[in-house]
Amino acid sequence: MIGGGFAGMAAAIALQERRHEVVLLERRGVLGGRATSYRDAVSGEDVDNGTHLMIGAYAATLDLVARAGALDLLLVQDHLRIDYVDDAGPSALDCPPLPAPLHLLAGVLGLRLPWRARGQALRFGLAAFRRPPGGITLAEWLRRTGQGPEARRLLWDPLATAILNETPERAAAVLFYNVFREAFLRSHAASRLVFLRRGYGQLHERLGRYLESRGGVVRRRAMAEAVDVEGGRVTGVRYVQRARSRDEIRAGTRPAAERVAAEAVVAAVPWKAVPPLVPEAARSQPPFVGLAGLRGSPIVSIELWLDRVVVDRPMVGLRDCEIEWVFDKGRLYGRQGAPQHLAFIASAAYRSIPRPNPELVGAAEAALRRYFPAMAQAAVTRSLVIREPDATFASDPEAEALRPGTLTPIRGLFLAGDWTDTGLPATIEGAVRSGFAAARAVEAMA
User: Fold this and answer.
1) CATH number, residue 327
2) What is the rounded distance in angstroms from the CA atom of residue 35 to the CA atom of residue 379?
């Protein structure tokens, strides 16, 4: 198993539970991949490398968390509620626990939207029962379903950009359709937001301990260099083991070349990291050759600590703002009062990612002063900026033709990751489903 993110962990746990011998190689000292966290040395609180959300429709993910005995880390809404604020004041998409999609209908009717935009939103909800044509963008699908500028600006564009990490002008319509159906058209419980009570790194530590408790092996700071192939089938993985403990690092322990024999390998790494792992002759063949056509989409996270409480909700959407969402991480972690720890997210952050840190911190502070009156007396005591240039794959229509399946032409080598052909955008659920699919493929090979 190469990669200790959600995809690799899901595959490893599923195979270990079925009594296979699993060795998981993770290049870093922490598990989680693009959904991890670290403990801030100053505040002592967890800081995620981007705030990640789950929803009730994430059945595979919630099953994985439950099997690892980590449900206590989840904070689940009673029913879907998304708070927004703009220059006209606060508003909320508040969906009561009615049968789907009536809960969404009630939520849209209660949201502060012009009546024309509400009617357009209901029209889209009806249209979403039919799959959009292939190869079109979400913007084009919204146009075909009669969504005007206000419905897009106040409802669809912020929601879609957060889900897809891509603007509607670039994103594939089919991916939003798939998420919309799973989240809003099946049950009211599927649309509920699921937060973490701690950082994602802590959730992955729980997953890792569960894997090890069942006999699995986790090797951290193990940089996979090549998948060995003989006679068209996998025989093992060569990797470089770097110093793992602080004592080894202080002692100057040198990296050591290692190899683990394997009958099957799941490469659960970013798409860019797959071709260098396979023999050179295979890199020009599908699916490896197509991976060069996938591109990344960035996310920028801005963490602020304030000397008083300014935001009074766990999560608020900031309409008409460069930074779309703010989360009260302290509140989510069970702490109230000052200092208030806020995390701001800019998705599809092509314009934000090259800007210097002081400008991004200033933009977050300006958003608070614009929308939250209590910020007039508040001061920022600490700030951090986290950039993820390739936080997700860019979910455009072209990418849908390039996303590979689980199987490869090399017998015993399987692919997993949110960038594989899951039918979903780059989500935690897509990663977990891909890991489970890879585990099933390994079992089928045996």
Assistant:
1) 3.90.660.10
2) 29
